[in-house]
Each structure stands twice: as structure tokens, then as C-alpha cells.
């Protein structure tokens, strides 16, 4: 039996894909949109966050220059007072994707002295998802800002879909049925 290289590569990729859990369930929000996480321009992070509908399963992404900024998740009182002395978690890569795993408020500040005080802080208020088991893509009103990336196309396929697709591809690629 002669196996076509393209068909074999495709099948290997499909098998690998079907072995990976589908973890992308929600929207990806870039904090500060195109401005990113910065003190330049005094971006209004509170206004940005109030125009979003964050839900469990979404991801918030902080993009910034790591030589000048960081991201610290802090308590409510530390958020209000801009206290960076006892963060829950500190992120320093400059491209931090943080999955939202629970409802409630999630407080983030920049821990560089003075940055939080000039507004480099955001309160992410998370509600529960209104749909169960599926991807949730927020809808934007005409005056709001939509997330820069929405649900990954990978989340649109289930393992059930793959169990139907792969045998069909095997039949067409190898010319036989089982």
C-alpha cells in the first residue's frame, strides 16, 4: 500500500490535535487594547474594563515593556491604596495571558513605584457564563470596545467531531473503508 505523504502528515496532525484537550473556551481581551499596559497617554483602564463583559473561561492579556512595567494581582485594599508590597501573583514577561477561572473582582496594578497612582491599574469584574459547555464570545454595543481576539477556531471542534472526521479522512486518503 502506498501512503501519500500529505495524507500521512494530515492524519498525524489530526491525531495530535484530537489528543489535546480543548482549553480555549472564551474571549481573549488585550488590556488597554492597542495601547497596552502603560503609563504613556494616561489610558483609562477603568473605562475600558467597564465596557467589557468578562466571564469565567475568558483570558486577559497584558502586553507591555517588561523593563518599565509589570503586572501584579493584588487584594481589593492593595488595589485601592496602590500597595505593591504583598501581591497575590506577579507577572513580568511583557506578554502575560491570565485565564479567568472564577467569578468576582480581579485586581491588577503595575508595581513600579508611581505607576498605579497615575492610573496603571484595572479591576476586572467577572460574571458567570450564561452558556454551559460552549464558547462565549461577548457582543459589543456600538459604543463599546470589543475584545481584540475572540474565540479560537480550535474551540469550535469537539472530540466527537474529530471521531467522525478522522475515519472519513482515512477512507478518502487511503482509498479503503473499514
Structure description:
The chain has 178 residues and is of the alpha/beta class. It has a single domain (24-169), classed as Cupredoxins -  blue copper proteins (Immunoglobulin-like, Sandwich), CATH 2.60.40. It contains four helices and eight strands; from the N terminus they run αβαβββαββββα. The protein has helices at residues 5-19, 45-50, 76-81, 159-174; strands spanning 28-30, 54-55, 59-63, 71-74, 89-91, 95-99, 104-109, 121-127. The chain starts with a helix and ends with a helix. This is Phytocyanin domain-containing protein. It comes from Papaver atlanticum. Residues 129-155 are annotated as: Disordered. Pfam families: Cu_bind_like.
SSE layout and pairing:
Elements: H1 5-19, E1 28-30, H2 45-50, E2 54-55, E3 59-63, E4 71-74, H3 76-81, E5 89-91, E6 95-99, E7 104-109, E8 121-127, H4 159-174
Parallel strand pairs: 1-3, 2-8
Antiparallel strand pairs: 3-6, 4-5, 4-7, 7-8
Helix pairs in contact: 1-4
Signal peptide: 1-26
GO molecular function, one term: electron transfer activity
Keywords: Copper, Glycoprotein, Metal-binding, Signal
The geometry reads as globular
Distance between the termini: 15 Å
The CATH architecture designation is: Sandwich
Helix fraction, binned, reads 10-25%
Largest sheet: 5 strands, mixed
Low-confidence stretches: 15-24, 130-166, 168-173
**CATH homologous superfamily?**
Cupredoxins -  blue copper proteins
Arithmetic mean pLDDT: 75
What's the CATH topology label?
Immunoglobulin-like
> Care to count the β-strands?
8
Determine the number of helices (DSSP H or I, runs of at least 4 residues).
Answer: 4
Spatial arrangement of strands, main beta sheet: 2-8-7-4-5
Order of helices and strands: HEHEEEHEEEEH
Radius of gyration: 21 Å
The fraction of residues assigned to DSSP E strands is: 15-25%
Number of domains: 1
What is the CATH class? Mainly Beta
Q: What class would the helix/strand composition place it in?
A: alpha/beta
Amino acid at each position: 500500500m502506498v501512503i501519500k505523504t500529505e495524507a500521512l502528515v494530515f492524519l498525524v496532525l489530526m491525531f495530535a490535535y484530537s489528543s489535546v484537550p480543548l482549553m480555549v473556551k472564551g474571549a481573549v481581551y488585550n488590556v488597554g487594547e492597542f495601547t497596552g499596559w502603560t503609563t504613556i497617554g494616561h489610558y483609562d483602564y477603568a473605562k475600558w474594563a467597564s465596557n467589557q463583559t468578562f466571564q469565567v473561561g475568558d483570558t486577559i492579556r497584558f502586553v507591555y515593556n517588561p523593563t518599565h512595567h509589570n503586572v501584579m494581582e493584588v487584594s481589593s485594599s492593595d488595589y485601592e491604596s496602590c500597595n505593591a508590597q504583598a501581591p497575590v501573583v506577579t507577572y513580568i514577561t511583557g506578554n502575560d495571558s491570565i485565564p479567568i477561572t472564577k467569578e468576582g473582582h480581579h485586581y491588577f496594578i503595575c508595581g513600579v513605584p508611581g505607576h498605579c497612582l497615575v492610573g496603571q491599574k484595572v479591576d476586572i469584574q467577572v460574571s458567570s457564563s450564561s452558556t454551559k459547555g460552549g464558547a462565549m464570545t461577548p457582543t459589543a454595543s456600538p459604543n463599546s470596545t470589543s475584545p481584540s481576539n475572540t474565540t479560537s477556531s480550535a474551540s469550535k471542534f469537539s472530540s466527537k467531531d474529530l471521531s467522525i472526521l478522522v475515519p472519513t479522512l482515512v477512507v478518502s486518503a487511503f482509498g479503503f473503508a473499514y
